[in-house]
Each structure stands twice: as C-alpha cells, then as structure tokens.
Amino acid sequence: MDYRNATGIRHDLGTGVNIQTVVFGNLGDHSGTGVAFTRNPVNGDKELYGDYLLNAQGEDVVAGIRNTLPINNLQRDLPEAFAEFTAICEKLESHFREMQDVEFTIENRKLWMLQTRDGKRTARAAIKIAVTWSRRV
Fold first, then answer.
1. Distance of CA 43 to the CA centre of its chain
2. CATH of domain 20-136
3. For residues 116 and 70, what is the distance between their CA atoms, to the nearest angstrom?
4. pTM score, two decimals?
5. Which residues pair with 70 in a beta bridge?
C-alpha cells in the first residue's frame, strides 16, 4: 500500500504475480541440462549445435567444471526428451523466423524449456540463414 501511495498507483488495479516451477537437472542420469542453437552459428547449417550434461545444473554447463557432451548425443542418452526438444526447436525457429539460442533442463526424463532468444552468429552464417528463409517465403 505504501509503495502504491508513494508512486501514485491506484489500489484497485490488482496485484501482479509470477508463478515459477523449479526444476532440477541434477537428479541422476535421467536428468540434465544444456544449451543449444537451432542452427550452426558458425556456418548457418540447419542442425542443432550445442552442449549438455547429465546429472547437472545449468551452471555446470557454462562454468567448464565438467566436459560437456555434443547435443546430438542426447538422442542416445534420453531419446524421448531429445525428440521433444528437436520438435520444440523447430517450432520456435518457425515462430520467430530466426535462429534461436535455447536453454533447457531435463528432470527425470521430462523436458523443461527455460529460455529462448535470437541466436548470435557469424556474418557467413547470417547470410546463409537469410537466404534459406527467403526461399521458404
């Protein structure tokens, strides 16, 4: 109430609430976390490009504490989660019409998409991706 009074916000507007679920990639060999691009950011090829770790949290992937595995190995380790992940990556790229940089966690074989954003890439990759998209239109 004091904040609303001090900032001149009406009291009948309601209250905003964020609801979050915490997921754990460090619950054993059926859990993990990773980051990936929906295309190769170096050359623009249409292939998943990224890394993951089993039994790990996000910080483990980026901190360099453990050696990560190539994203395509996830198909061998957790095939159902990998199939769902690739389908979601296709939808995200199609929706945003842009290469995506995604973060995910798998908790006990269940995939959770954490974040997506437009992916950074080399100039060579940007040209190849743009040409590919122009042919789709």
1. 20
2. 3.30.470.20
3. 19
4. 0.84
5. 51
Alpha helices, H only, the chain: 2-7, 58-63, 74-77, 79-96, 123-136
How many C-beta neighbours within 10 Å does residue 63 have?
Answer: 10
Q: How far apart are the first and last CA of the chain?
A: 52
Count of CB atoms within 10 A of residue 2's CB? 6
Which two tokens mark 91? 């939808």
What are the residues whose beta carbons fall under 8 Å from the beta carbon of 90, sequence distance 6 or more?
A: 38
Closest CA to 67 of 76, 78, 56, 80: 56
Please state, in angstroms and rounded to a whole number, the distance separating the CA atoms of residues 94 and 86: 12
Q: For 29-76, what is each residue's pLDDT tens digit?
A: 999 999 999 999 999 999 999 999 999 998 898 888 899 999 999 999
> What residue ranges do the domains of the chain occupy?
20-136
